[in-house]
TrEMBL record:
It comes from the Eukaryota. It comes from Auriscalpium vulgare. This is HMG-box.
Amino acid sequence: MPGPARTPKTDDKPPRPRNAWILYRSDKIKDLPALEPGHPKRGQADVSKAISVMWNNETTDVRAEYERLAERAKEEHALKYPGYKYVPMKKADK
């Protein structure tokens, strides 16, 4: 069952910098086996679960490489959005 539909962003808040897990997931989503014709699309939760298993089985070298890529992405994000600070939304405001 799909989750609730997301509303389009109307504010101009910058995105959060991508972390190692998000970078890994973006790379590995292409490596998931294709579904057979006629099967419903995979839900994003199922995709994340499958890739989590892959992440947990990765070598420390691979994980360190993604941590390095995340640091680089964080530095680029800081240059693009100087003064950015992540402020999570309070539950009451959601």
